[in-house]
Task: inverse folding
């Protein structure tokens, strides 16, 4: 009882058999194509030799006839040249002098004259020059048209070299029992057979194994790979390699998923941190560092929207412009540190006396602004008078100046003054402030239209 062969030996033998089959198939395919191509090439060369012989035969006949028919007289030449034409082969004839001037020309059909327009092309040997023009007809009635140029023997004329050009229409050599259709049909049959053999070989050696590999690649479980992995040929090697690749891919996919989770968590944390920092920076941009109230930049960004919203809702909007009295004298007498302390107290007092929805703005230098949405002008007057009294009382203790620093205020209202836009409302409050300054410091002044509304 013999021992079974090892899988490696079986796989090597299978590989050698397939390689031998491939080489035999390619050799047969090449032999088939060569067997069809060689006769076709031989046939075409034979037809070319036949055509050349026919052209030379007609040239010699025409050379003899033209030498007898030549005449330097144009009228006589026209009459003589007609005798060279026939209805079968010679379709047109032209006589040329050595200087390239055409002496006479005749053609059976008018359309053939165009083929003899140019002067003849001949070499110094005196050999005829033939050029293929076109092929007419089809099947067994196929003709080939040539233009031939040849010199006449020197004995035929005394006035210099003379040339003849002729248009020949000859039977195509392949229009007999050997037609091009036979050759083309044979070649087509051979090519079709070779193509069928090639398709069968590709299907058995390429497409079928590729389909098996595609099914292997689309399987979701490794147990399915056992059938292909047990094979000892290249397909089995590919199956085993794909199984290993799939296992490694699963490991790397899990590793990539964990890295992605960590990256997502880290990115989320960094995004939240950046968002908090941006909000903090935004708040710092809008906050005046000395007084702790909002700055003029916030007023420029928010005040137009607040104005339009209050007007659309038909609610009142009051703006108060405040300016510190005797602030320059305080800086001159006690220094800027004392002035900064008073400004910081003014900002703290304004924040404590206003609502959460109100905006306290340091408008510039020692000037402040209050934006009071929904507050009537009467209520704002009471609020501002209370702020002025508290500030005067504390400033007297802080500075011990005489007179002590105080506040002057100007008030304008949306419903009382009816401004066209937010800039006009701000201008009305500012004008009321300067009117209060001129009338005496430490007091509240409403815009003129607001006073009449009260």
Result:
């Amino acid at each position: 009882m013999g021992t079974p062969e090892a899988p490696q030996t079986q796989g090597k033998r299978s590989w050698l058999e397939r390689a031998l089959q491939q080489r035999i198939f390619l050799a047969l395919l090449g032999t088939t194509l060569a067997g069809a191509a060689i006769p076709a090439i031989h046939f075409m060369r034979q037809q070319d030799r036949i055509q050349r012989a026919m052209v030379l035969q007609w040239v010699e006949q025409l050379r003899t006839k033209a030498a007898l028919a030549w005449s330097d007289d144009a009228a006589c030449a026209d009459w003589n040249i007609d005798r060279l034409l026939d209805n079968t082969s010679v379709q047109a004839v032209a006589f040329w002098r050595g200087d390239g001037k055409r002496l006479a020309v005749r053609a059976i059909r008018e359309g053939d004259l165009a083929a003899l327009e140019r002067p003849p092309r001949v070499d110094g040997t005196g050999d005829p020059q033939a050029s293929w023009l076109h092929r007419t007809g089809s099947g067994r009635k196929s003709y080939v048209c040539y233009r031939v140029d040849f010199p006449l023997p020197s004995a035929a004329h005394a006035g210099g070299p003379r040339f003849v050009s002729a248009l020949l229409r000859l039977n195509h050599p392949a229009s007999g029992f050997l037609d091009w259709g036979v050759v083309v049909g044979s070649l087509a049959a051979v090519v079709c057979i070779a193509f069928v053999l090639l398709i069968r070989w590709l299907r058995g050696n390429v497409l079928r194994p590729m389909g098996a590999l595609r099914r292997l690649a689309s399987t979701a479980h490794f147990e399915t790979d056992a059938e292909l992995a047990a094979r000892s040929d290249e397909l089995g090697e590919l199956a085993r390699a794909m199984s290993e690749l799939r296992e490694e891919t699963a490991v790397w996919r899990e590793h990539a998923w964990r890295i992605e989770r960590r990256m997502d968590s880290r990115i989320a944390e960094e995004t939240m941190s950046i968002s908090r920092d941006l909000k903090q920076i935004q708040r710092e941009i809008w906050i005046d560092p000395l007084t702790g109230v909002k700055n003029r930049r916030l007023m420029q960004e928010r005040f137009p929207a607040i104005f339009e919203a209050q007007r659309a809702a038909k609610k009142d909007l009051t703006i108060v412009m405040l300016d510190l009295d005797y602030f320059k004298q305080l800086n001159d007498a006690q220094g800027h540190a004392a002035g900064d302390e008073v400004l910081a107290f003014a900002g703290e007092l304004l924040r404590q006396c206003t609502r959460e929805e109100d905006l306290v703005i340091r408008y510039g230098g020692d000037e402040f602004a209050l934006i009071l949405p929904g507050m009537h002008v009467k209520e704002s007057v009471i609020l501002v008078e209370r702020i002025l009294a508290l500030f005067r009382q504390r400033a007297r203790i802080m500075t011990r100046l005489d007179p002590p620093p105080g506040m002057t205020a100007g008030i304008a209202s949306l419903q009382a003054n009816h401004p066209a836009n937010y800039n006009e409302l701000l201008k009305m409050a500012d004008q009321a402030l300067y009117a209060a300054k001129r009338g005496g410091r430490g007091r509240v002044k409403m815009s003129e239209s607001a006073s009449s509304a009260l």
